[in-house]
Design a protein that fits this description.
Structural class: mainly beta
Strand order of the largest sheet: 1-28-27-26
Number of strands: 28
Number of helices: 3
Oligomer: single chain
Largest sheet: 4 strands, antiparallel
Radius of gyration: 20 Å
Helix content: under 10%
Mean pLDDT: 93
Low-confidence stretches: none
Distance between the termini: 6 Å
Shape: globular
């Protein structure tokens, strides 16, 4: 198996002058970014993807400072369609980060994140949970779980009807019960990455928390919905390279159909977590560079993901039986050599077809890459 063709698909196009990027990242405020025409209207990043088998479309959460943050992409025609997220609700509602979940009812559940920082915290209302009907285009807003805070990531426990999420700038963990229509806080997380939540086969929710005073560690917690209890486990994932504990934080997670839980870390390592204990089994690094995003269980039973960063990103497969990695090649447009800066999510749309969300490119607007593997 190898990559046959790769194509980069742009929703917007812009090139970011280095001087402007440097000025805004060193001195700019949230409002400076929003007032800038180029950043507001053209500088976009696909941040999360959801393939909907019901209509064959890829639903795309974006970072977009003008609030046009929800699209769908047709992998057959390569056309984009705005889903017209209501932009008049909140000027700081500027992205859907890692928050697209397909419910058994056919609705897509999501949440609103922000690029704004703590300096804006008193002003906006906060990010809502919402759901979207792909058949009718109807939005239904569920609640704002934490006033003034936005939602970095959600995960849906379909069996129990619970949406979990974590927030920013205040790093908090919450649950929302769909039947009751109520949200409540579960834990304060401290200064952690809020990239991904994970569910194990028993319905336990996993995340990091920050032991800041003296330790500077990022151990795991587990929330048990049956006991309604958070256990702070004082258990760290392997930090690679040794001594850099932030690099051991969860970058992506996957629970396979047989209930096995995998983590990809910020260092680019793949781990298998055995909840009893718990125990983390180090499986290796698919690529030398850091970051590992977009884990999914393929239609063929392999695990797929994207490793690497800074225009050096590779699609890989992991054979579970032999525990071997297969490097499927760099994510580079076959026609013009456009390279993927950093992948943030991955979805599979057919037996040999994948889509990759590029994000955080500071030189241009980011693209969606479509990859077709040779059969």
């Amino acid at each position: 198996m190898q990559v046959a063709t790769i194509s980069a698909h742009s929703l917007k196009r812009c090139e970011v002058p280095l001087e402007k990027w440097s000025r805004y990242t060193s001195q700019g405020s949230t409002d400076d970014w929003i007032r800038d025409d180029m950043f507001r209207e053209q500088w976009v990043s696909p941040t999360c993807l959801l393939y909907n088998p019901g209509d064959g479309m890829v639903y795309v959460g974006l970072t977009a400072l003008n609030g046009d943050i929800f699209y769908r992409f047709n992998p057959q025609s390569d056309n984009w369609e705005s889903l017209h997220y209501p932009t008049d609700r909140d000027r700081y509602a500027t992205k859907i980060h890692v928050s697209l979940q397909l419910g058994d009812d056919g609705w897509i559940y999501s949440a609103v994140a922000t690029l704004a920082d703590v300096d804006m915290w008193p002003r906006p209302p906060g990010g809502p949970l919402f759901r979207f009907d792909p058949k009718t285009g109807r939005y239904e807003f569920l609640c704002i779980p934490q006033p003034h805070d936005y939602i970095q990531t959600i995960i849906l426990d379909r069996r129990r009807g619970i949406l979990y999420g974590s927030t920013f700038p205040g790093r908090r963990l919450f649950r929302y019960d769909l039947a009751a229509g109520q949200a409540r806080e579960l834990a304060i997380l401290g200064c952690v990455l809020t990239e991904h939540l994970a569910l194990d086969a028993m319905g336990g929710l996993w995340h990091h928390y920050h032991l800041a005073q003296w330790a500077g560690r990022y151990p795991l917690l587990r929330y048990d919905p049956d006991l309604d209890e958070v256990k702070f486990l004082n258990f760290d994932l392997p930090d690679l390279p040794a001594g850099n504990r932030a690099e051991g934080q969860i970058d992506t997670a996957l629970t396979t159909r047989d209930g096995t839980l995998y983590f990809g870390t910020a260092a680019g390592a793949l781990l298998e977590l055995q909840p009893d204990g718990p125990e983390a089994i180090y499986l290796g690094k698919p690529y030398a560079a850091p970051r590992l995003k977009g884990l999914l269980e393929g239609l063929d039973g392999r695990i797929y993901g994207v490793a690497g960063a800074k225009y050096d990103t590779h699609l890989f497969a992991f054979e579970r039986n032999t525990r071997q990695f297969i490097d499927l090649g760099a994510i580079v447009d076959s026609r013009d050599g456009t390279r993927c800066w950093l992948a943030h999510d991955l979805c599979q749309v057919g037996p040999n077809v994948f889509c990759v969300a590029e994000c955080d490119n500071h030189e241009r607007a980011s693209y969606l890459f479509k990859i077709t593997l040779a059969s």
